[in-house]
Amino acid sequence: MTGLFPLWARHYPRQHLGADLLAGLVVTVLVLPQSLAYAMLAGLPPQAGLYVSILPVLAYALVGSSMTQAVGPVAITAIMTFSVLSPLAAPGSPHYIAMAAVLALLSGLLVLGFGLLRLGFLSNLLSRPVVSGFISGSALLILVSQATLLLGVQVHVAGTWGQLRATLEQLPHANLTTLLLGGVGMGVLWLSRSVLARMLVHWGVVHSRAEMAARLAPLLVVVVSTLVVVALDLDLHYGVAVVGPVKSGLPDLALSLPGFSELGLLAIPALVLAFIGTVQNITMAQALAMKRRERVDANQELVGLGLSNIAAAFFGGMPVGGGLSRSAVNVASGAQTPLASVVSAVGMLCIVLLGTAWFARIPLAILAASIVVAAIGMIDVAELRRAWAYDRADAFAFVGTALGVLVLGLQLGIALGVGLSLATLLYRASTPHIAVVGRIVGTEHFRNVERHGVETLPGVLFLRIDESLFFGNLRAVESRLLAEIARLPDAHDVVLIMSAVNSVDLTALEALTEIQQDLRARGIALHLAEVKGPVQDRMLQTDLWKSLAGHVHLSGNAAFECLLVTGRKEPLPL
Amino acid sequence: MTGLFPLWARHYPRQHLGADLLAGLVVTVLVLPQSLAYAMLAGLPPQAGLYVSILPVLAYALVGSSMTQAVGPVAITAIMTFSVLSPLAAPGSPHYIAMAAVLALLSGLLVLGFGLLRLGFLSNLLSRPVVSGFISGSALLILVSQATLLLGVQVHVAGTWGQLRATLEQLPHANLTTLLLGGVGMGVLWLSRSVLARMLVHWGVVHSRAEMAARLAPLLVVVVSTLVVVALDLDLHYGVAVVGPVKSGLPDLALSLPGFSELGLLAIPALVLAFIGTVQNITMAQALAMKRRERVDANQELVGLGLSNIAAAFFGGMPVGGGLSRSAVNVASGAQTPLASVVSAVGMLCIVLLGTAWFARIPLAILAASIVVAAIGMIDVAELRRAWAYDRADAFAFVGTALGVLVLGLQLGIALGVGLSLATLLYRASTPHIAVVGRIVGTEHFRNVERHGVETLPGVLFLRIDESLFFGNLRAVESRLLAEIARLPDAHDVVLIMSAVNSVDLTALEALTEIQQDLRARGIALHLAEVKGPVQDRMLQTDLWKSLAGHVHLSGNAAFECLLVTGRKEPLPL
Fold first, then answer.
1. What does pTM read for this prediction?
2. Domain B434-566 is classified in which CATH homologous superfamily?
């Protein structure tokens, strides 16, 4: 019987009960505005954001492995849903809503599959600059999508660039009341994010409480602005757009099963969504776990996220993900275990059943303001600056991915990002560091002949390769080796010091074999030194090992001593 | 004035003149049958193969950097041309011929661009098993394409699988005379390839002459079979298909410039052709140069190959490449410099002007037989076996690429190959070898605690990472580190020995920075030891370096001594 409960529930530490209950209730209230906002960002009715804060949150709490990560409607999955579906159907239309549910189902099944097949390592396909570049590019897309709401204008153009141009053309027709409301909202939210907590601490408030107060600000902004709208009837007399009636009660569990043509349209987007969800979820779960000295199981995480999205398909119909701000609210509210998420799901259920009438007159500009402030926070200039200072290749990968997202769209953008990640890796590995070394007199140490005064043996070349050998760098190694031999006209022995060679792939092995045959034909013996255990194990049965004209030495020094004593002064007899 | 001549011509070694003249003439005659055969494999009129053995060969001889590589019509570019163009137009039709010329032009411009932009390193994108898998898969496609000619049947179906099925259905209608002719031809060619040279050597013939005789066999087979056709009028009375009239004289230099829609259709195929041409040419040029102790300049090679294809577009209209068998014939005939290729181009020009009437009654089945034997030789079972024995991942990459070529076609096949190359690389690098190490008593050496009796310090963890740190493996490093710390409950110092870490990318640097902050918060100091010069240079300005709770030690032993003397027995004060 207890086997049905997740591990954390079976051994639930009683002392956390109070903290978890309180955190759960706080989270319920605090994530309300963003749940509505992200649903609308996704092009869905606002209640969808509330629905997917119930069953999907429960599913993840019961199955996921992270103690404090919170899933739910998040900015990245929302903008991806919008950018995938808006070319296919009018946002908010029944067809659009049905396709969003299918998208959640497909990506949920894929993520679940990744988890069950233990493909969590797929998230290693992306470097951090690429992930940051992708998120930064997406944030710019979000800004474009929210501009109409802040201006109080309507634009019916698909595509980021068309939308941007149409929005700019509408600029003279902006609703000034809406603009004022949104502008003040953004200002307050921005201040609360950036300086409120610091000011409160400065005024003597305890750090954790100051942080909590800062997180409360968005809710307060929504409440106050809604009260202003109601008091002055801004929606009725000044054309300020509001959320409008939010459906009360539970959603119908119906899911229109996708036809083949729909599957074809949504398969790739679902894959991209699943991939991004995977990367984001695992990255964040590990970061959160590390702070609490816990471990997460990447594959278990994916099972949780997958089931959560499958639940979302039936109950709300909007893809969900692991949310940075949701999780931060959860941690800041004092959550200790997923029980907090269970409580917040129950709390959201109560709100959906009882209280949605309160949301009708929330001004859209304020929700847009909260999205914009969150999106600006997602633009990771600091990472770009660090990348530029540390490694230009990483900076180019960041910029390339961000531009890819803006120019080519989210899907090709992320494909470009994977390509850039791998290209950086390949480029770095294909320009290996190789040094001609000699022995420091009186020691057993070998160092670069150009940097140190070292002793060498006439006609013997000691070469240290500082990289694993694989198809991408063996040509560089080969040409360097041949160039160094050409500079040593009476060469008769070459020693490759392999202390930093962690693996040798088949392409490199065969190239080495050919190099050794070629050198032997020229009367030069190839020796290997300091071959690592795992590399040596693999090589034992190969032609290279069997046909080596030279020897395998335990160390560079052993090779030196051996060649000093037994060394030929002449090339090998042919 | 002399600047107009290539380097090899300006300092031409007189003693090679005789060898080069002879080799050039021998090559002209020997490559005749394959030039006709590959043109027809490409779906072009036979004379196209002769034309592109003139001007393109000259262009490469004057610009390329390899001394003995010979370019011309080759099997891989021929089958690629056929598989790209046959769905777009009827092979041999004027539109088809025009598009083949455009394909040569586009891929020539691309290769030239690769060379001028110094992108020769692009050829490092493919591992050898993937290249072998690609060539093996292409060889199987060639076999399918030649089956109709060997059977003497006609099939009008596009696509490999459809063609294969249609050919099998035609099996009962095979022309037995053709089958017999082709079968005997294949048998003789196969024997001459596999055992003739060995038998001749066994009978006392000098090795180089035996090899030459074996290479002469294909020409003899063509001559003899043509004589048989003429003597018995096999083409007139027994329905044996022959080459038919081969246009004499020079081609018209007209090239129909491609329209935009054609450019769109041919851009990707041209890119694939350029990429494969690049890989093949550089690989072969380097292999040939190595045997002769020469160097090739990869980018100069590409300039040569690019110009050669541009010349081919105007003069013959068929993409060309560096050919394994062409180059082997060249070397075996004793060629010493590209002068041999110049001579062979002039020789081919004479044949085109004077002697094409002789080719009309060559039986197609014999040309098909020579292609089939060459294609069977391209299926690299030995490489697959080596890969299977040495590294399963490489074997899977081979099989995956070959299957990709067969099932998805040449273009998606090679894309899959690049993907598999990179995936193997990433997979290998993402499972780094990490060892907990200790000091061997009485020495300065550190070894794996599991394999050696070593001394350690209580509460101190020595961890050696045997791989460069990058986005793909830092999670593995992180979880191993945390797991080892968890096994050492009173840990207060962690020393990372970085002797095999050749680079640290930004993603890994930031992860290390976070790990260090997290460890410090737990009262554990992180130390680094044996950080390589280039890695250290980059790290100096980073937060990690500045905020390190521990120290940077020159060696593992220095860290040991330092912690032994000054070491805390307690965690850091928080």
1. 0.73
2. STAS domain (3.30.750.24)
User: Of the candidates B129, B471, B499, which has its C-beta nearest A124's C-beta?
Assistant: B471
Cα–Cα distances in angstroms (integers) from residue A537 to residues A532, A533, B93, in the given order:
9, 6, 58
Contacting A residues, span 82-141, partner chain B, CB-CB under 8 Å: 121, 123-129
Angle at the Cα of A536 from the Cα atoms of A532 and A541, rounded to 5 degrees: 175
Of B127, B475, B479, the CB nearest to A471: B127
Q: Which residues of A touch B420 (CB under 8 A)?
A: none
Nearest-CA residue of chain A relative to B386?
A506
Q: How far apart, in whole angstroms, are the C-alpha atoms of residue A155 and residue A169?
A: 10
CB-based contact, A284 to chain B, within 8 Å? no
A137, A375 Cβ separation under 8 angstroms: no
Distance from CA of A566 to the nearest CA of B (A): 27
Residue ranges of domains in chain A = 32-128+149-158+172-391, 434-566
Q: Is A433 on the interface with B (CB under 8 A)?
A: yes
- Distance, in Å, from the CA atom of B81 to the CA atom of A25, rounded to the nearest integer, reads 67
Task: Check CB contact of B7 with chain A, cutoff 8 Å.
Answer: no
Measured between CA atoms, how close is B128 to chain A, in angstroms?
A: 5
pLDDT tens across the length of chain B (574 residues): 445 567 777 778 888 888 888 888 888 888 888 899 899 999 999 889 999 999 999 999 888 878 888 888 988 899 999 988 888 888 888 889 989 999 999 999 999 998 898 877 777 778 888 888 988 998 898 898 888 888 888 877 767 788 888 888 888 888 889 999 999 999 998 888 778 778 888 888 777 777 777 778 888 888 999 999 999 888 888 888 888 888 888 877 666 677 777 777 888 888 888 988 888 888 777 777 766 667 677 888 889 999 999 999 998 889 998 877 778 778 777 788 888 999 999 999 999 888 778 888 899 899 899 888 888 888 889 889 988 988 888 899 999 999 998 888 887 888 888 888 887 777 777 778 888 999 888 877 788 888 778 888 888 999 999 888 888 888 888 888 988 988 887 888 999 999 888 888 888 898 898 889 888 888 899 999 988 888 888 888 888 888 888 888 888 888 888 888 876 666 665 5
- B170 touching A (Cβ < 8 Å): no
In this structure, the strands spanning B71-72 and B321-322 are antiparallel
A391 vs B286, B432, B506: nearest CB: B506
Q: Is A541 on the interface with B (CB under 8 A)?
A: yes
Q: What are phi and psi of A497, to 5 degrees?
A: -90, 115
* Cβ neighbours of B123 in A, within 8 Å: 475
Q: Which two tokens stand for residue B315?
A: 């003069």
Inform me whether the C-beta atom of residue A555 falls under 8 Å from chain B C-beta atoms. no
Q: How far apart are CA A41 and CA A513, in angstroms?
A: 59
Chain A residue numbers touching B293 (CB-CB < 8 A) = 522
Asked if residues A174 and A152 have their Cβ atoms less than 8 Å apart, the reply is yes
ipTM: 0.75
CB contact under 8 A, B470 and A507: no
A257: three-class secondary structure by DSSP: coil
How many CA atoms, within 13 angstroms, populate the side-chain half-sphere of residue A90?
Answer: 4
Q: Is B68 exposed, middle or buried (0-12, 13-18, 19+ CB in 10 A)?
A: buried
Closest to B474 (Cα-Cα) out of A215, A128, A396, A8 = A128
CB contact under 8 A, B482 and A515: no
**Which member of B127, B506, B532 has the closest CB to residue A505?**
B127
Q: Give the H or E element holding residue B168.
A: helix B160-169
User: Between β-strands B434-440 and B454-455, what pairing exists: parallel, antiparallel or unpaired?
Assistant: antiparallel
Rounded Cα gap, residues A345 and A326, in angstroms: 13
Pairwise CB contact (< 8 Å): B129 & A506: yes
Structure tokens at B208: 């180089």
